[in-house]
Design brief:
Elements lengths: L18 H6 L5 H10 L1 H9 L10 E4 L7 E4 L2 E2 L1 H5 L12 E6 L6 E5 H17 L7 E5 L4 H12 L3 E4 L6 H11 L3 E5 L2 E3 L2 E3 L1 H11 L5 E5 L13 E3 H4 L14 E2 L3 E7 L7 E6 L1 H15 L6 E4 L6 H13 L3 E5 L10 H9 L3 E4 L1 H8 L4 H4 L8 E5 L5 H11 L6 E4 L32 E4 L12 E5 L9 E2 L3 H9 L6 E9 L5 E6 L3 E4 L2 E4 H9 L4 E11 L3 E10 L9 H12 L8 E5 L12 H9 L12
Parallel strand pairs: 4-17, 6-7, 6-8, 7-14, 8-11, 11-12, 16-17, 16-18, 18-19, 19-20, 29-30
Antiparallel strand pairs: 1-2, 3-13, 4-5, 9-10, 14-15, 15-23, 21-22, 22-24, 24-25, 26-27, 28-29
The protein binds 5'-O-[(S)-butoxy(hydroxy)phosphoryl]adenosine (WT7).
The site of 5'-O-[(S)-butoxy(hydroxy)phosphoryl]adenosine has 24 residues, from helix 11, strand 19, strand 20, strand 24 and strand 25.
Length: 635
């Protein structure tokens, strides 16, 4: 047992770090550093921020004069790209690998040093400038998991434009409403992407989405699959053609931005049908994600780091693209599905590239666990030193399998709790933290998390309540695009002085957090966040459907799966193919991630007297649980 991180004996099933892990860690003493960070948060963040390049230092670390609209590093100037790329070019890191990428078919490997990355990003930045993209514009990016996705994001940031990345698994309506809300004039996409050996027809989806809204003027199309696509004359340009223009290779200054200037918008699901455009900035976000990345993953130059998420989600923004690049790390990115063509695909690549840190979602771990130990056991996974988990609670069975079979009982698991809105990791073990399977353990430095009851009082140890954060931190979103009131209401409406995350949690006697899951109408399906309202509105856009209700029910691999109940319009009746047709319709509108597991046709939906669908009752019935209070049910 190590003496360093434990104050007394911890209760429950506890895994302690080895002496070797402790010796190599940046954090020898979490408790004292945490205490210091909480007692003087501004001093702490000031010190953290000094590790990065600023063309002008800040005048004030935190401006909290107008809560909950907090500002960080006020008066400071920088650009996240100055730190993610530029500053490495004058050091030994210039020729260090920034990115290693492998195609799904395994036939292509592309590598980029920091020097090469700068060249690619500069070219892309020059293309965007040539199209008239300016500081403050929002460019929508809809791409498969290929290096150009990262180049595009970094190119936007470099010239001071913001990006809005729409995950390549989303479909027509999701893409259209995000472009519309961001008022993007430029869209960056690809002809298609590969997934499980099949082509995902991104360009066709993009064409349909553009037709549903009216802001897009130019489209840059990266050729990935080479299949035939429709290119609209005067609107659509092949990326490889644009690269042939002489001006493309000119140098491009990295625009210096105010700390509070917009870096990106990322849409995420909430309780209404309309996704929220969460906003992050150049200054505070940069400091927060790079500090969390460094300390939580103990990153240094020897690492080969692999975050298996998609860059299109916040995990990818913070911990594939920006965090690793700011720390000068070498990242690996894989294009395709985890079990393609065989269930050893991930393990094979860990062996091949000597991956040292793997950061993945519980759903992927459970999915691979299903195939048994023989697949990972065929490979030498000894390069791994640390494992990470993100996106939903990790169940103890999956945790133990990950720990024993993948980590060979020598790699700590950092289970990281956070959200699109928090910018970066909030509650997580550090490599030296004693672990309890299923607990995200304790807050990161500078983060004051707690569990409140409905009256805003901290709950007793072990008692369930609402997960809150009681002090601002630099990575907190700066709001919701075009809707500051919704930001205030949604996250600070309940407790005014505390950020309410929308998750249920409890804290045990040792101060360890156990996150239980969403309290609102948000479903986590395979770690993806989906609103019941979005799924329902996709369903009612089908001619046969008059009303729909979606709920999440427990699922062995996905965590939760979507079950929907629909009421048909007059004149429509249930047919053998209707269920399949409705599933396809959801695929087409939102994307395959939202495809319902099960569709049930009902004659009516249970509603309250005020007309709200009682999803709670549908869930209880589906699970065969007591139906609870039905006093508000309309007869
Ligand atoms: C929701 C946020 C974190 C980036 C990717 C997801 C759930 C996330 C954990 C975890 C338990 C977790 C929460 C949260 N969640 N990580 N380690 N343990 N739950 O970001 O799509 O914004 O979703 O994911 O319910 O509220 P997101």
């Amino acid at each position: 047992m190590n003496e360093v991180n434990t104050n007394g004996k911890l209760e429950g099933d506890v895994y302690y770090p080895s002496q070797e892990v402790i010796e190599k860690s940046y954090t020898k003493d979490y408790d004292s550093m945490y205490k210091r960070s909480i007692e003087e948060p501004e001093k702490f963040w000031d010190e953290m921020a000094r590790e990065y390049y600023w063309s002008k230092p800040w005048d004030k670390v935190l401006d909290d004069s107008n809560p909950p609209f907090f500002k960080w590093f006020v008066g400071g100037k920088t650009n996240i790209v100055s730190n993610a790329i530029d500053r490495h070019l004058t050091t030994y890191r210039k020729n260090k690998l920034a990115l290693i990428w492998e195609s799904e078919a395994g036939d292509e490997v592309r590598t980029f040093s920091y020097y090469a990355l700068n060249r690619e990003v500069t070219r892309f930045a020059n293309i965007l400038k040539g199209m008239g993209v300016k500081k403050g514009d929002i460019v929508t990016i809809y791409m498969p998991r290929i290096p150009e996705l990262q180049f595009a994001m970094l190119a936007c940031a470099k010239i001071g434009a913001a990006h809005s990345v729409v995950y390549g698994g989303f479909s027509v309506e999701s893409l259209a409403e995000r472009i519309e809300d961001a008022r993007s004039k430029v869209l960056i996409t690809a002809d298609g992407g590969f997934m499980r050996g099949k082509i995902v027809n991104l360009k066709q989806i993009a064409n349909e989405a553009i037709a549903r809204q009216g802001t897009i003027e130019h489209v840059v199309v990266v050729k990935r699959t080479g299949h035939d696509v429709h290119m609209e004359q005067g609107r659509d340009y092949w990326y490889h053609d644009l690269l042939g223009m002489p001006i493309i290779n000119q140098p491009c200054e990295t625009e210096q931005m105010d700390a509070e200037d917009l870096l990106y918008v990322l849409y995420t699901s909430g309780t209404t049908g309309k996704p929220k455009g969460v906003i992050h900035t150049h200054g505070g976000y940069m400091v927060f994600i790079s500090a969390t990345y460094k300390y939580i993953f103990d990153i240094n130059d020897e690492d080969r780091y692999w975050c298996a998420a998609d860059p299109g989600w916040v995990t990818g923004h913070s911990y594939i693209v920006y965090g690793p690049l700011i720390q000068g790390a070498t990242s690996f990115m894989y294009e395709g599905a985890p079990n393609f063509p065989y269930p050893n695909r991930w393990w094979k690549m860990i062996e091949k590239y000597g991956i040292t840190v793997l950061y993945a979602a519980p759903t992927a771990i459970r999915g691979l666990m299903r195939f048994g130990d023989a697949w990972p056991n065929r490979h030498d996974l000894s390069s791994l030193r640390l494992l990470g988990s993100v996106g939903e609670p990790i169940n103890p069975e999956a945790w133990k399998w990950y720990y024993e079979v993948i980590g060979r009982s020598k790699c700590p698991i950092v289970d990281t709790w956070w959200q699109t809105e928090t910018g970066g990791i909030m509650i997580s073990a550090l490599p030296t933290t004693p672990l309890k399977p299923g607990s995200a353990t304790r807050p990161f430095f500078g983060i004051q998390a707690d569990v409140y009851d409905l009256d805003g009082k901290p709950t007793a140890p072990g008692e369930e309540g609402l997960l809150v954060v009681t002090k601002p931190w630099p990575g907190l979103m700066r709001g919701i695009l075009h809707d500051p009131e919704r930001y205030k209401q949604q996250y600070f409406g309940k407790f005014t002085t505390a950020y309410e995350a929308g998750d249920a949690a409890r804290k045990d006697k040792d101060g360890y957090f156990w996150v239980i899951g969403r309290l609102d109408d948000v479903i986590k399906v395979s770690g993806y966040r989906l609103g019941t309202a979005e799924i329902e509105s996709a369903l009612v856009s089908h001619p046969a459907v008059s009303e729909a209700a979606a709920i999440g029910l427990p699922h062995d691999v996905k965590g939760h799966a979507i079950h929907v109940y629909v009421v048909l319009k007059e004149g429509f009746s249930e047919t053998e193919t209707l269920g399949e047709e409705l599933k396809k319709h959801v695929d087409h509108e939102i994307g395959p991630i939202a495809r319902p597991e099960k569709i049930e046709i009902m004659s009516s939906l249970p509603k309250t007297r005020s007309g709200k669908i009682m999803r709670r009752l549908l869930r209880a019935r589906a699970l065969g649980q007591p139906e609870g209070d039905k006093s508000t049910l309309e007869e």
